[in-house]
Specification:
Oligomer: single chain
Structural class: alpha/beta
CATH architecture of the largest domain: 3-Layer(aba) Sandwich
Helix content: 25-40%
Number of helices: 15
Largest sheet: 9 strands, mixed
Strand content: 15-25%
Strand order of the largest sheet: 12-6-7-5-2-13-14-1-15
CATH class of the largest domain: Alpha Beta
Distance between the termini: 32 Å
């Protein structure tokens, strides 16, 4: 296990393969809630109501058929959670909730294993599955290790007419041991208005007489720290327009959790890492961290967010270590076969490209997998379009399609990335495509460039003008409107 590292893959396998017993000080997890929704990773700044560039990250839908093997693994252990899952199966049959809890049971057990004796776990959930998850946590941690049910209260636009507004989530706070030896830094909140009016900021002293009767409150010269923090937290949500991820949590929420239950230098683990909010909070507060996510797309965006948040620590996305990404051709071939979309985004990260931006009709396919933007010597926006092919073979027709797209998109360069080696006719066609001349300079770049995954793994990159990356959506809009305003990459 390496601190300040991202792990790409199934968190159950990553926990088993990389995390020793009692190695983590604090676990925060925000798992899918069995809400029967398909959540997509949306690139904000690329996406709008009718302009959405997104890729499937995970589907929060569960079926017992898919989890039957997991169910058998859990129930065969004979542990308390096995008896719980068996009882629920007896009551509900092959219900999606039983599948979901079976999947979660294995992971919660591993998280209990990796926690230090002084460690704590916060599980974030909503009413969909919260009461079931509380039972599961009681089984794995023991109910004596339960510390708080924290209510995160927020406001949002009103919806529905026949229920009260659903404006809160729940965090279940457990400790590894039932003794009060866990790390906990007491936090304080502001006094009530009536208390401030009567006592101001002075520390209040309460006392009783010899008969045990309470005496009138007095004050000391010392200033009060405030009232001990309660278990209802009013913290604003991340505005939907600023979300990197549909279920993104506010930084203030994670900072409060991490500040309360860890110390500087401690290791914080988020096994359902999403868009890295817990990691950003941990880094800000001087903690070490590890984040796990199952998709290459999510891990790539986490790297970019960490780099953007801490440029002095992670000056380039490549400087955030990742365990689990393919590092050889065999791994690349497996990824391309198992998940073509993940393969596509994994390939794009090599050349610092983004999924396509610009104005397009919803659902339209421009034949573009990625884009790279720059300004030429005349301060005019230019871009390269990228096509990624993960099949066992590539054809000259595929390259002709890219050239057609380059022309249609008015792109300066087309980049063709493939797992398979290009054919001789493809190399000839690329050579005949000519050059792109960078305005205001004498520099020339091949208009059509082909690279294989083997070459990318070996360090080769497209030959493009060196300049700062531009947000692809804003860059495309600026190009459409003739704007010369400087743009900032990947900012909400």
């Amino acid at each position: 296990m390496q601190p300040n590292t991202l792990y790409c893959g199934d968190n159950l396998q990553m926990l088993r393969d990389h995390f020793p017993d009692e190695s983590v000080d604090l676990v925060y997890l925000d798992p899918p809630f069995n809400s029967d929704k398909d959540y997509n990773y949306i690139y904000r700044g690329l996406a709008g109501v009718d302009d959405t560039a997104q890729a499937q990250a995970f589907a929060d839908t569960w079926s017992f058929a898919d989890a039957a093997t997991v169910f058998l693994e859990v129930t065969a252990t004979g542990r308390p959670e096995a008896k719980l899952i068996d009882a629920l199966h007896e009551a509900y049959g092959d219900a999606p909730m039983v599948a979901y809890l079976s999947v979660m049971a294995l992971r919660v057990r591993e998280l209990h294993r990796v926690l230090k004796p002084t460690g704590s776990l916060y599980l974030h959930c909503d009413p969909t599955a919260g009461h079931y998850l509380k039972l599961l946590l009681d089984c794995v941690f023991d109910e004596s290790c339960f510390r708080n049910e924290i209510i995160w209260h927020y406001r949002k636009w009103s919806t529905g007419r026949y229920t009260f507004q659903r404006n809160h989530d729940t965090l279940f706070f457990y400790t590894k041991a039932d003794r009060n030896n866990h790390t906990f830094n007491q936090m304080f909140m502001e006094r009530a208005a009536s208390t401030r009016k009567r006592f101001g900021a002075a520390k209040i002293v309460s006392a009783r007489d010899a008969a045990g009767r309470r005496l009138p409150s007095a004050v000391e010269d010392a200033e009060s720290e405030g009232v001990r923090q309660d278990d209802v937290w009013d913290i604003a949500r991340v505005a939907p327009v600023k979300q990197l991820y549909p279920t993104q949590k506010p930084l203030a929420l994670l900072e409060r959790v991490i500040s309360a239950s860890s110390n500087v230098g401690d290791l914080v683990l988020d096994p359902f890492c999403g868009c890295a909010t817990a990691l950003v909070a941990a880094q800000t507060l001087g903690r070490q961290w590890c984040g796990i996510d199952i998709t290459y797309l999510a891990v790539d965006v986490m790297r970019k967010r960490l780099s953007d948040s801490f440029p002095a620590v992670f000056p380039l996305p490549a400087n955030v270590p990742v365990i689990g990404w393919p590092t050889d051709l065999a791994g690349a071939r497996r990824l391309a076969a198992d998940s073509p979309y993940d393969f596509q985004y994994w390939a794009l990260h090599f050349i610092d490209a983004n999924p396509p931006g610009g104005k397009k009709k919803k659902g339209a396919d421009r034949g573009v997998d990625g884009e790279i933007w720059w300004r030429d010597g005349a301060a005019k926006l230019q871009h390269a379009v990228v096509s990624v092919k993960g099949g066992r073979s590539v054809t000259d027709t595929m390259l002709k399609d890219l050239i057609t797209t380059v022309d249609a998109e008015k792109a300066a360069v087309g980049v063709f990335i493939s797992l398979a080696n290009p054919t001789a006719p493809m190399r000839s066609r690329a050579a005949q495509a000519g050059d792109y001349e960078l305005a205001g300079t004498s520099a020339k770049y091949a208009r059509i460039q082909m690279l294989t995954i083997a070459e990318l793994l070996g360090g080769k990159r497209p030959d493009l003008p060196k300049s700062s990356r531009l947000d692809p959506h804003k860059a495309a809009d600026a190009a459409d409107e003739g704007s010369q305003v400087e743009l900032d990459f990947n900012k909400p």
